[in-house]
Automatic annotation (TrEMBL):
InterPro entries: ANF_lig-bd_rcpt (IPR001828), Ionotropic_Glu_rcpt (IPR015683), Peripla_BP_I (IPR028082)
Domain of life: Eukaryota
Compartments where located: Membrane
Gene giving rise to this polypeptide: NMDAR1
Name recorded for this polypeptide: Glutamate [NMDA] receptor subunit 1
Gene3D superfamilies per UniProt: 3.40.50.2300
Species this protein is from: Cichlidogyrus casuarinus
Tagged with keyword Coiled coil: no
Broad class of where this protein is predominantly found: membrane
Amino acid sequence: MRDHFRKLHFSLEKSFNKSPINFSFNYTLIDPGVNDISLISNLQKFSPTKFTAVITGITGENSEQLLRTISLACSYLNTPLISFSSKSSLFSDKYRHKYFLRTISSSDNEMPIWELILKQLIWDKITIIALNTYESQLTLTQLMQDHSNKSYQVMDYKKLPPSEMELQEQRQERIGNMLKEIKARETRAILLYVDKQTAELVFKQAEQNGMLAEGWGWLASEDALAAENRPIGLLAIRPVQKDHIEQLDEANNIVTRSIQNLVEDEKSLDLKPESLFLRMKSYQKNGRPFFDSKGRIFSQQYQIINVGSHRQLIPVGNYSFDQGLSLSTDKIIWPGPSNHSPNCFKKKTNLKVVTILSIPFVQARKLRDPNDACRSAGPDELNAEVECQRYNGK
């Protein structure tokens, strides 16, 4: 990566050689424990001019927390930030992360694809299992909104605490009890939005409860798809990703072109910092907008993945902003394994027949004299009376 930075630096210097812009290119490694104040101070050293943009690609443990710190620091400095590593829905919030852009799709951008898949599978009832985190709530908001205009209904929403919040045995017991509750109900289509570690526990307990057999349908997030024990018949969506070098070059191209176009169009360097961000946000590729209103990439492509009979990952469909959803349902292997799409809703057949002893109510009166007889021998006459065999009046 360092060698590529050097090549990129040389290319940019050549690009700006005849430009009125005093260009500088810097790269640095950030301490994972950096705080907001020290980060702002470091960024100010690197960005003495108004036309500054930060490109970042952070992976590994605590990467999202570090990226939040960088984004908030850039917001404070009115500095545009492009990330090519984070899918977190949190950064779609432009109130907190005002100058954040990304060259990969965010998690909340994937929910419309799930809706299209549910519609094509004719699954109108689903159960959602997700982590009880702010990220999950942001991502699943669209699925949980008013269903009056949707083709499906969320019958149940099960929330699990993050893995670090409880012991392994407690978590396994919690998941087991949760799945038993789901099994006792009628819904057979489950959307699983959890991390890899939680997904492995869910699949383990689901197998023990017979919920990976024929008749069940499982849709999963990209992280859940990475589970070692992913079951046969699982469906998931996965973005078609470029490698880090390609993503870095793309982010850099957005920044440099935006700066050049801004200077050429405005004929002045006395511009506000927001001008660069707006120019970057309006960047177009192949004549079409690259970012949406929340700074998310428009043109991301996805694959719909099916776990085959040998647990291999098999593409069975694609999605793109231009072409929409293309899903080959006849190629999907379902849990069982089976070639038949499961019904999302299974009515209970264990009906109970209850017989209640009933004593019919009759209008009766006591005979004044035991020797009295009916006033008429004809039972069809309206004034006929018969002797009451079981008296229930006073």
